[in-house]
Amino acid sequence: MGSDEDMRGTFVMIDGLDGIGKGVFLEAMKDAALSEGRRVFDLHAYWRTHNLHPSVSEFMDADIIFSSEPTYTRFGRLIREELIRKGTNYSAMAIAQAYALDRQVLYDEVLKPALSKGIGVIQGRGVSSSLTYQPLDAALKGEALRLEDLMALPGNAQALDEDWVPNVLVIPTVSAEEAMRRLAGREEQDDACFEKYEFQLRLKESFEAQWFRDFFAERGVSLYYPDISGSEADTVAIATQLYRQCFARES
């Protein structure tokens, strides 16, 4: 991954259908990191308190940073609160551009400085979401949006650069029906326009398609598709084991 490969931190990305339990995955991994005495910097907590990204000096002592896309500040907040809200009708390209811009700022201000210093990153969603959600969104809206156009957006191109792609991409799997059931049972509803059965069904096909697997494998990314159709305790156990595999301490 470039001349500083030995220095770069491990980057794990968790993606997949809405409502499948990515938050459970992230929380279980954070608990596992804390139980080992790792110094954790949780961007979600920082965003809630400060409504902006931290300065480099604020996270340089961390061992692992926990993050999500879209972020909860600036462009990410605009995406969550306006662009993908049910009842809105923004074009797929407008939404894709907003995601890419939010991603570019996150990488420039946090992820790249952290990874360059050997800090690990565990993140919910990322460029893998844009390559699946946005083309499907465009197709359902009767718009044309090529994968090549998405990849060319600066924030996406940066995230797909060999220096910054995740080491591991995890796509937890359940049926689309189970994902919708879990969505309906959540205490906090995102009210996002993508949370529809037809969309989730086609999205599942995209995440599990051979082109998607090949796309990331060709970039040196290891892909995992754990079955999390069991209980939440089962998901926690799977996430904890994966954390230990990805961040095993040197003896």
Written overview of the protein:
The protein is of the alpha/beta class and 251 residues long. It has a single domain, classed as P-loop containing nucleotide triphosphate hydrolases (Rossmann fold). The protein is built from twelve helices and six strands. It has helices at residues 22-35, 43-50, 56-59, 75-83, 92-116, 127-140, 147-152, 154-159, 176-184, 197-208, 210-217, 232-246, and strands at 11-14, 40-42, 64-68, 120-124, 168-170, 222-224. A six-stranded parallel beta sheet has the order 2-3-4-1-5-6, sandwiched between helices. Helix 1 packs across helix 12, helix 4 (75-83) packs antiparallel against helix 5 (92-116) and helix 5 packs antiparallel against helix 6. The longest helix has 25 residues, at 92-116. The protein is globular and about 50 Å long. 36% of the residues are buried. Residues 1-5 have low confidence and may be disordered.
Summarize the structure.
With 251 residues, the protein is an alpha/beta fold.
Which properties best describe this structure?
12 helices, 9% strand, 251 residues, single chain, disordered N terminus, 6 strands, alpha/beta, six-stranded parallel β-sheet, Rossmann fold, 52% helix
